[in-house]
Amino acid sequence: MNWTNALAIFGAVTGASGLGWQMWSHHLTGGRVEVLSTRLKQEGRWWVRTNVSNVGRLDVTIVGYSVWRDIPGHRLKRAVWKLRAVRRMG
To answer: Label partner for 44 (CA 20 to 30 A): which of 18, 19, 58, 77?
Structure first.
């Protein structure tokens, strides 16, 4: 192997890693929201606690969100709720 081939391989490796880094950093730009939910039982009643936080680089405005219980046999009702939410959000 001569110096020309070694430099060509080095350039290809560093170029590919640079391209990968640019793609990853572009993926991380913008607003990203993380939603954490916990279920707890107090005094015989079930409660759902949610925590919504921004983990991205840009500011995020949360307009609204909903939480529903998945009950067997209520798939049509859940689909109607989703359609209403989409219409409200635009």
So the answer is: 77
The pLDDT score that the predictor gives to residue 90 is 60
Q: Say what the pLDDT of residue 46 is.
A: 82
Residues 56 and 29: their CA atoms lie apart, in Å, by 7
CA atoms within 13 A on the CB side of 85: 12
Helix, strand, coil distribution of the chain in percent, nearest 5: 45, 20, 30
DSSP character for 44? Answer: T
Would you say 77 and 68 are in contact if contact means Cβ atoms under 8 Å apart? Answer: no
Write the Ramachandran bin of 20: left for phi over 0, alpha for psi from -120 to 50, otherwise beta: alpha
Residues of the chain with pLDDT under 70: 68-70, 90
Tell me the longest C-alpha to C-alpha distance in the chain.
77
